[in-house]
Amino acid sequence: MFAALLGLAVSAAAQARTFVTYAGNYSPSTVYNVNDMVTVGSEFYISLTANNLDNAPAANGSRWALVSSGSGVAGAAGPTGATGAMGPAGPQGATGAIGAMGPAGPQGATGATGAIGPTGPAGPAGSGGENGTPGVVRETRTFSVAHIKGYYILGGNSLTLFSATGPGNIERIQVAASYNSDTPVPANTVMTIVVDGKTYRCTLGMFLLWNGYATTDGVAATQDLFVTKYLGITSATSVSNETISGYRRIYIKYNSSINISIATPPGVNSGWWTQVEYYPGAAPAGRYAATRNVFHMAVNEWGGVAPGQWVTVLPTVAGAGELESIYFVSSAPGKVEPQWLEQNPHIAVDGTDFWYGGTEDFFGNQFYGDQWRGRADEYGIARWYWSGAPDNTTYWSGYRYFEESPMVFSSSLGMTWQNANADAGPAARVGTMAVYYTTE
């Protein structure tokens, strides 16, 4: 076959030669030139034109010339060549995926028992809990009392009730006074508490809810005596040689020092009996909650208030802590219903607002308390009284403690109150006191 091809490539004179380029199997996508030879099955064709594209050789005789047809006989296979030298090692392949975990091996033998460690220190003793509640850490310090008996104070002078250095805490303050005046001398006496260098002041009228015990109505005020766990008024007369006494249970922690004193108003002499109960030294760990670490007192003394006026009972406190109590005293001229109580006290705890249905509701009575002066450990109405001439005033005061239902806050606490509008009978005088604690 190749001899025939050679014969076609050489002219009769044998001097002129035409060279043929073999381009392999025909492809319709290949551009062929003149004298390009292709294979179609067992046939060979030579391109007769340039730029020969997509022209099947068997169907385009003007573009292709058939050179030969038929298959040659395959030659015998040549001998196997010698094995070549080993090439260099290829690069290391990537690490394969981790296989599945095999089954757990048998459990090993038990090791020898270790030595027993030393006994830890004993924890604080606690009283037995009730119904599964945690026990209370017992007090281990010595209960102490600082008392003053019948101390006579000239008007405008002061008296120190208690002073101490080092750590400790106050538990209860009890005060009694005797005087001869038509003005409420003990209610106007100012108490000063300096704890760890920070000073708080208020009248005994706010601290013990003595405001509103008038001396000019000519009758005894013993109808308003009461005793509770945290607050009590144990005597109050409104005739000559007036007396009044009461107590307040209050926790005041001090780390370095404390001083409690009173200063009487000028012009009237008075006699005093006082007791301050306290524990010296640091309290046993866990005796008091961390939210009761630092003592604070916010006071608005009993004074004039306009109709519709907002009163800040407790400025917004930042941080964590706990509210101890709220005291409220109020009055208006004449024999009137205390309708100023109809406005709703507002408390914000950790950014959430709470509104009570009315002031009297907040202090535990929905109907002013004129028929029943409820006084309990948690809240009560300290006084609801219409005085006669010449005082001619209506008094209303209340208290609330948060011992039974703690009000703990994590980031902030605040409280406001609004005097009722004029058409609802506003108060003429209002006073508030809030005691609270913070962790720092």
Descriptive notes:
- The chain is 5% helix and 41% strand.
- A hairpin with a 2-residue loop joins β2 (36-40) and β3 (43-47).
- Mean pLDDT is 85; it is low at 1-14 and 125-133.
- It has a 6-stranded antiparallel β-sheet with strand order 5-14-7-12-11-10, with no helix packed on it. Strands 15, 17, 20, 21, 22 and 24 form a 6-stranded antiparallel β-sheet that branches.
- It has 3 domains: 2-69, Carbohydrate-binding module superfamily 5/12 (Seminal Fluid Protein  PDC-109 (Domain B)); 142-287, Protein of unknown function DUF2961 (Jelly Rolls, Sandwich), CATH 2.60.120.1390; 289-440, Jelly Rolls (Sandwich), CATH 2.60.120.
- It contains 4 helices and 24 strands.
- The protein is mainly β.
Produce a short descriptive summary:
With about 450 residues, this protein is mainly β.
List the helices and strands and how they pair.
Layout: H1 2-9, E1 21-25, E2 36-40, E3 43-47, E4 64-69, E5 144-153, E6 158-165, E7 168-179, H2 185-188, E8 190-195, E9 198-203, H3 204-207, E10 226-227, E11 231-236, E12 243-254, E13 257-263, E14 270-280, E15 294-304, E16 310-318, E17 321-333, E18 346-349, E19 352-355, H4 359-362, E20 379-386, E21 393-401, E22 407-409, E23 412-418, E24 429-438
